[in-house]
Write a structure and sequence with these properties.
single chain, alpha/beta, Purple Acid Phosphatase, chain A, domain 2, 5'-nucleotidase,  domain 2, 2 domains, seven-stranded mixed beta sheet, six-stranded mixed beta sheet, globular
Length: 556
């Protein structure tokens, strides 16, 4: 499985069809020969329960947005794209596999209500041939993952580095690897789960082994079994995948997940999503060749498609492809759309579910939360801080624009919480220096005159600011961090702090560029922000009393 990476690519590996053709093709007339075996990999990752179509914010697409052709993804559209590509590849006599990089679950009411049964049903119905275990598959514990595997209809659910509790629910259910057949060839597929999943989810007695050593051993075992084509289905993140590729020989392709990375070799259109790297990304491997890595963002917005060409010795000659954007140009499959509509009916009851009580109205108005301390901002930020306490979180920052409504006194329903937090953002954590936090707060108050959504709502931190100075020129006057004794101390510019925010901000949204560029150990920790808030309200055991305590003060 030595990789022979050359500038010569396989000839017209993907013919494509109108509206569905991959943007990158192999070089015409190159690398021809009867001894070449070509294999197409269709792949997804980090679906996160986006059963319904999503909008540009990755949340559920509204009827109004659908009317404007602004929806992406959804199971019905994904089913249509997979069916069409399969039909094209079958007609051309080209073998293929359909794989998923993990984190099928967690992120919408479909998971909250059905606990993975819906995602497992569609995994089976769409004909996936293997899936990696992601960290979020453990969010509701090992038994929930066991149920997911049993409901997936025999789809191999893979992780070579999981050591299950052999007396527990997962005993005998997770395979380290599987051997699939395509075009008369044996293809080994290895699964990989994040090594720190035990810190990220409810894993019980399950243990997680080192990725590099585990993959090296799995490749060796497949080679000994006579398999000379190996794919690593890795829910480890783009950067970790590059490290694995650089240290483990014999991997022909890494299909990634976990980091929600969009890769593309196309020049992005104006306003379009910008890729973090090339599709595929090539990494020098220890055997002197190169290993290609692919990933297809998240939430079912893209269907990844890469075609490998192997020579007679099983060496990779080329890898070509491009993720396919699942936009309005791809029709929804009627049968799948009908099933989604049926599954959605009970969710209306959830939206009306009473989850807590409010002693007084909780102000989440746009005018308040984008210009100063607001009661809803305090609630959500305190909920983030409490949810991240076990991970050592010291500070929470929520953008005021992410708070979309107020809540009246009395019963609080899940529908109201979802109205306040409609974007299906997840809790994210990272480490930042004190100076970077101060600079981020400067950006946060820089456009208050415009009512911009970046205004920071905080917990574990308080600050004083003024609008009498030019934007980004010292509007932040004082910043203090809560200490262990319940007091406050000045933020240390050189100290590192663990910060909780939402994944939109963590990726640089609303002007928080330093969150994306300077964060150490950033991670979209999960669960969803609405679930974090409800969990916090329930933990209080009594009606929530909104509060303003002066944590944000403006000097005029």
């Amino acid at each position: 499985m030595r990789h022979v990476f050359t500038c010569v690519a396989a000839s017209a590996l993907l013919a494509g069809f109108a509206g569905f053709a991959p943007a990158a093709h192999a070089q015409e007339g190159a690398a021809q020969g009867a001894d070449l075996f070509t294999l197409t990999i269709l792949h997804t990752n980090d679906f996160h329960s986006r059963v319904e179509a999503i909008n540009r914010f990755d949340s559920t697409c509204s009827a109004e947005e659908a009317g404007k052709n602004e929806c992406f993804g959804g199971v019905a559209r994904l089913a249509s794209a997979i069916r069409m590509r399969r039909s094209e590849l079958d007609a051309a006599g080209r073998p293929y596999l359909l794989l998923d990089g993990g984190d099928q679950v967690q992120g919408t009411l479909y998971y909250t209500h059905y606990k993975g049964a819906v995602e497992a049903e569609f995994l089976k119905a769409l004909g996936y041939q293997a899936m990696a275990v992601g960290n979020h598959e453990f969010d509701s514990g090992p038994q929930s993952l066991a149920d997911f595997i049993k409901n997936s209809g025999g789809t191999p659910i893979l992780s070579a580095n999981i050591v299950p509790d052999y007396e527990g629910a997962l005993r005998g259910l997770i395979q380290g690897s599987t051997i699939l057949e395509a075009g008369g060839q044996k293809i080994g597929v290895i699964g990989l789960t994040p090594e720190d999943t035990w810190e990220l989810a409810s894993t019980g007695e399950v243990a997680f082994l080192d990725a590099v050593g585990t993959v090296r051993g799995a490749v060796t075992a497949l080679t000994a079994a006579g398999v000379d084509k190996v794919i690593l289905l890795s829910h480890s993140g783009y950067h970790r995948d590059q490290q694995i590729a650089a240290q483990v020989p014999g991997i022909d392709l890494i299909v990634g997940g976990h980091s929600h990375t969009y890769l593309s070799s196309k020049e992005p259109a104006e306003g379009a999503q910008k890729p973090e790297g090339a599709y595929p990304t090539w990494v020098d491997s220890p055997d002197g060749g190169k290993t290609p890595i692919v990933q297809a963002y998240a939430y079912g917005k893209y269907l990844g498609e890469v075609t490998l060409a192997f020579d007679a010795a099983g060496n990779v000659v080329s890898a070509e492809g491009e993720p396919l954007l699942l936009d309005h140009n791809i029709p929804e499959d009627n049968e799948f759309a009908a099933r989604v509509a049926e599954l959605a009916k009970p969710l209306e009851e959830i939206r009306n579910q009473v989850v807590a009580q409010a002693a007084e109205p909780i102000d989440g108005s746009r005018d308040t939360c984008r210009a100063g301390e607001c009661a809803m901002g305090n609630l959500v930020a305190e909920a983030m801080l409490a949810r991240g306490a076990a991970q050592g979180v010291q500070i929470a920052i929520q953008n005021g624009g992410g708070l979309r409504a107020s809540i009246d006194a009395g019963e609080i329903t899940m529908g109201e919480v979802l109205t306040v937090l409609p974007f299906q953002n997840t809790l994210a954590t990272m480490q930042l220096k004190g100076s970077e936090i101060v600079q981020s707060l400067e950006s946060g108050v820089s456009r208050v005159e415009e009512g911009a959504g970046r205004f920071p709502q905080v917990a574990g931190l308080r600050f004083t600011w003024t609008r009498d100075r030019p934007a980004n020129e010292g509007r932040i006057i004082k910043v203090e961090v809560s200490d262990d004794g319940g007091g406050w101390k000045a933020i240390d510019p050189n100290a590192s702090y663990i910060v909780a925010t939402n994944n939109f901000m963590r990726n640089g949204g609303d002007g928080y560029a330093l969150f994306a560029s300077n964060a150490v150990n950033p991670y979209d920790y999960g669960p969803n922000m609405e679930d974090v808030t409800v969990e916090y309200l329930l933990s209080l055991g009594e009606a929530y009393e909104p509060k303003l305590d002066g944590r944000i003060s403006e000097v005029k």
